[in-house]
Write a structure and sequence with these properties.
The complex is a heterodimer. Chain A contains 4 helices and 39 strands. Chain A is mainly β. Chain A starts with a helix and ends in a 21-residue tail after the last helix. Chain B has one domain. The chains are: A mainly beta, B mainly alpha.
């Protein structure tokens, strides 16, 4: 028994010896992060103490854990990329990284992960950046609790907050991204989870999907971004319980769907967007339990959208509930609550007895001649909308909600 | 003139209709606020009411008052008074008392609700200013119609037609012309089109202040650029003022030559 114990102790000691701590500070033997990485062996921990470290092009090529105590500042002095991770199993925690160089030929990032697995990036604060966290051909990583504050002014010379490129199975959680070009950008990134992030005041999109399939994004807040959230050319994306707010401007929308198939959009809230959801060429999408409040257009259907179903959503006080630009309709609207519904419910089962037509004649006219929007809320428009409601001529006559609810749905 | 204005004003203040009008707005304001619980939403709903009802009531009331007080006017004409001051006094009496009903009727509930603490105060004041402008414009137009028509029925008919035209038919024609000429650049035309009709002008002014401009897309950008700036605001108010001054000018001219 005793022998065993000694043996175990010996192993433990060996392990402890093996995984060393290396401290970095201005008065320590090791004063730069670069030299610390050079000295470190695999699976060591580098502890960076409070201070300012003017370094760039730091390459972490061993499985290390880099921990910052009290947010040490890594200042790249605008010279280029700051940290590049090329090894598997790297953890970076608690650094304050500023001054990433701007380039028109290379995407310099505050922190880049290249071709590695099982990385963990957490508690970072990034400021004055070009690209923030750039994940390149890397899988199975976690990015959480980071704060990215950019100062982007123009699209062409600014980068994205968190970018995933050819990377699968990445979890992005609890990050705060603001004032960059695209808050979170996914390109060829499959099976990722984007959760509980806040993306605000970005120049272009709060979240941007390109050619990325089977991803889930949920419980995120996207507010006041240049154009909103764009989901393009992707399949089987699940969008749950997100908040899209105040994406207000002449070319803005809460969410843009372009060439999206088989997605699920459930439990989201769209408030005060110029266009809640802009749909183009998207098929077999389930819209359920979403709230559309005070938008200009709740849903704008641009064309080539088939077999979508809109059930049990709340449409509250939007200037236009739905805009359509064709007379063909293959989408189903059922059991939604429409605040503009004026029908009655004689048997009191909560379902209106008269079908509701969500497409107004005026929204059809505006689609055709955008200038006519100037007549919004004019008495004449109310009259023609009413007559179109009674006998539809221009709008698709099968586009109606046969079971409009009489009370707002609460879930 | 001031004396006649005072008499007309007090006469109207005593009349039942002013109170009904005031009570209507009071009720409207209170109901809207307590059903909506949202000041800026209430302002939008109010705008819908104001741009339709204020011109209608202005025209009807103006015509009615002129015909009703015709005998008193004839009595006044026998006195050594300037004709223009008689009619202008009456006109101002009607217009001022109507705008007062509007401003008090809507202002009181909103102040009680806490307008001064809200950010909607500028939108609301703009609403009241345009409402007052509309009252002045349509009462003046009504006086014009009444002065030109001895026949009461004809006068009322024209007045209602005028309201119908500016509130509804004009927009219809406007819409048709926008659709017909959709292949051409339309922003100038739509700008001019809105400037020419006081109802459309007030509606656009308020809508743009309420930041619906983002809905307007490209056209909205142009409109916002025009109406959103102080320059545009001043131009719009000048346009509204011209709409008041021209009919008044005609009242003066017409009344000078008219036989009684």
């Amino acid at each position: 028994m005793k022998k065993h114990f000694v043996f175990l102790l010996a192993i433990l000691m060996a392990c402890l010896n093996n995984a060393q701590n290396i401290e970095v500070c201005s008065t320590c033997p090791v004063t730069t992060l670069k030299s610390a990485i050079n000295q470190a062996k695999d699976f060591d921990t580098i502890i960076v103490k409070k201070g300012t470290y003017k370094e760039h092009d730091i390459v972490i090529d061993k499985p290390l854990t880099v921990v910052g105590k009290n947010y040490p500042i890594i200042d790249g002095e605008l010279k280029g990329e700051i940290i590049t991770i090329t090894s598997d199993n790297v953890t970076v925690d608690g650094l304050f990284i500023i001054n990433v160089g701007t380039s028109y030929t290379e995407d310099y990032a505050a922190l880049r992960v290249r071709k590695s697995k099982h990385f963990e990036i957490k508690n970072l604060v990034l400021e004055k950046l070009f690209f923030g966290i750039y994940i390149e051909k890397s899988n199975h990583g976690k990015i959480f609790h980071n704060k990215i504050i950019g100062d982007a002014v123009e699209e062409y010379n600014s980068g994205n907050g968190i970018q995933l490129w050819y990377s699968n199975h990445i979890e992005v959680e609890h990050n705060h991204v603001q004032n960059v070009r695209d808050g979170i950008y996914l390109e060829f990134a499959d099976n990722c989870l984007i959760k509980n992030n806040i993306s605000t005041n970005n120049l272009r999109y709060g979240l941007h999907f390109m050619f990325s399939n089977d991803d889930i994004y949920q419980d995120n807040t996207f507010e006041n971004n240049g154009a909103g959230v764009a989901v393009m050319f992707s399949k089987k994306i699940k969008m749950y319980n997100n908040i899209f707010r105040e994406n207000w401007g002449t070319a803005s929308y809460g969410m843009l769907l372009k060439e999206i198939n088989d997605a699920e959009i459930i439990g989201n809230t769209f408030t005060e967007n110029t266009i809640g959801i802009n749909i183009e060429g998207s098929n077999r999408i389930v819209y359920k339990n979403n709230n559309f409040e005070n938008n200009g257009w709740a849903i704008k259907v641009r064309g080539a959208c088939y077999t979508n179903s809109f059930t049990e959503n709340n449409f509250l006080y939007n200037s236009f509930d739905i805009a359509y630009n064709s007379k063909v309709n293959d989408n189903v609207f059922d059991k939604n609550y429409w605040s503009n519904y004026t029908g009655y419910d004689l048997n009191k089962d909560g379902i209106g007895d008269v079908p509701y037509r969500p497409v107004k004649l005026f929204s059809y006219i505006v689609n055709r001649t955008p200038e006519t929007i100037i007549l919004l809320r004019s008495l004449f428009i109310d009259i023609i909308d009413f007559s179109e409601k009674v006998s539809p001529v221009f709008t698709p006559d099968n586009l109606l909600d046969n079971n409009p609810l009489t009370k707002r749905i609460i879930w | 003139m001031l004396k006649i204005l005072k008499y007309s004003f007090y006469d109207l203040m005593r009349s039942r209709w002013s109170y009904v009008y005031l009570a209507f707005y009071l009720l409207l304001g209170i109901v809207l606020l307590f059903l909506n619980n949202d000041l800026s939403k209430a302002v939008i709903t109010l705008m819908n009411v104001i741009i339709v009802l204020v011109p209608l009531i202005g025209t009807i009331f103006g015509v009615m008052y002129y015909y009703n007080s015709k005998e008193f006017t004839e009595l006044l004409l026998a006195q050594p008074l300037k004709r223009s001051s008689i009619f202008l006094g009456q006109y101002l009496g009607v217009a001022i008392s109507l705008s007062m009903s509007l401003i008090l009727g809507l202002g009181i509930p909103f102040i009680l609700y806490g307008l001064f603490k809200s950010s909607a105060i500028w939108d609301f004041s703009l609403l009241l200013i345009t409402g007052a402008f509309l009252t002045f414009i349509f009462t003046a137009l009504a006086f014009n119609i009444a002065l030109s028509n001895e026949n009461k029925i004809k006068g009322f008919g024209y007045a209602i037609l005028l309201w119908l035209f500016l509130a509804i038919i004009y927009d219809g024609i406007f819409l048709m012309s926008l659709i017909i000429f959709e292949d051409y650049p339309l922003d100038k035309l739509s700008l001019v089109g809105t400037m020419l009709n006081p109802i459309d002008l007030s509606r656009t002014l308020i809508l743009l202040k309420l930041d619906i401009s983002a809905l307007l897309g490209y056209t909205g950008a142009i409109f916002k650029k025009f109406f959103g700036t102080n320059y545009g605001l001043i131009i719009s108010f000048i346009a509204l003022a011209i709409w008041v001054i021209l009919p008044i000018f005609r009242i003066v001219k017409k009344s000078r030559k008219k036989d009684f």
